[in-house]
């Protein structure tokens, strides 16, 4: 499973990229709003930092609007993937984008049927939202497992991005459920590295080493 970072904060993206584990970036309108910067400006910086796909979401309600809105985004870089909401108009747009060879990431996916139709419309990626399902007492990981099973049974090559990842356990579970990618906030990426026994081990090695130096 690959790791994407889910943020529009370029400082976080830079720090994550230095670790050498990040294969792509996802953004969403809330994350861009939080950055307080212009969307195109942020995207230009992101594609310079990360060598991989960068999802940029369109906001129009209709397919025509989505296609138009995508033009300046696609002009930024070949790395841009157009993130499209899971609606009937969104599917129409995904179909048109795929005919033009433009990769899409269908977002706000909450059921296996939504993932299936998005894939059939030509989506390069589907993004089931784990955390938001868990929030309403549904099993987000089970959804990833169902989508992975259906895609493999029917030879569908659309990639599953486990999204709305809230903690490290989601990452482990998404990987074993068959997600191709997990996109996560920088904080979760940092948590993947941390283990109390690693910290204790480092402390003990240091102590023993210093004691030995003093002898
Ligand atoms: C993914 O592409 C979305 O940007 C993101 O994972 C949403 O996460 P949230 O549910 O924590 O807002």
Automatic annotation (TrEMBL):
Keywords, alphabetical: Cytoplasm, Pentose shunt, Schiff base, Transferase
Family matches, as PROSITE patterns: TRANSALDOLASE_1, TRANSALDOLASE_2
InterPro entries in alphabetical order: Aldolase_TIM, TAL/FSA, Transaldolase_3B, Transaldolase_3B/F6P_aldolase, Transaldolase_AS, TSA/FSA_arc/bac
Location of the protein in the cell: Cytoplasm
Gene Ontology MF term list: aldehyde-lyase activity; transaldolase activity
Pathway this chain belongs to: Carbohydrate degradation; pentose phosphate pathway; D-glyceraldehyde 3-phosphate and beta-D-fructose 6-phosphate from D-ribose 5-phosphate and D-xylulose 5-phosphate (non-oxidative stage): step 2/3
Family as reported in the entry's similarity comment: Belongs to the transaldolase family. Type 3B subfamily.
Name under which the protein is recorded: Probable transaldolase
Organism annotation: Marinithermofilum abyssi
């Amino acid at each position: 499973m690959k790791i994407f970072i889910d943020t529009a904060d370029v400082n976080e993206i830079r720090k994550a990229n230095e670790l050498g584990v990040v294969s792509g970036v996802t953004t969403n309108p809330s994350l861009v709003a939080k950055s307080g910067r212009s969307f195109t400006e942020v995207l230009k910086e992101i594609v310079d930092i990360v060598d991989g796909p960068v999802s940029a979401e369109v906001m129009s309600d209709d397919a025509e609007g989505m296609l138009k809105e995508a033009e300046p985004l696609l002009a930024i870089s070949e790395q841009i993937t157009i993130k499209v909401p899971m609606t009937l108009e969104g599917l129409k747009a995904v179909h048109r984008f795929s005919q033009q060879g433009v990769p899409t990431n269908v977002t706000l996916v909450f059921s296996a049927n939504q993932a299936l139709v998005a894939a059939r419309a030509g989506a390069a990626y589907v993004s089931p939202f784990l955390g938001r399902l868990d929030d309403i007492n549904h099993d987000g990981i089970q959804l990833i497992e169902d989508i992975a099973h259906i895609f493999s049974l029917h030879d569908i090559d659309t990639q599953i991005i486990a999204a709305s990842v809230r903690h490290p356990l989601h990452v482990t579970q998404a990987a074993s459920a068959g997600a191709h990618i997990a996109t996560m906030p920088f904080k979760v990426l940092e948590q993947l590295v941390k283990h109390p026994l690693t910290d204790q081990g480092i402390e003990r090695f240091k102590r023993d080493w210093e004691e030995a130096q003093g002898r």
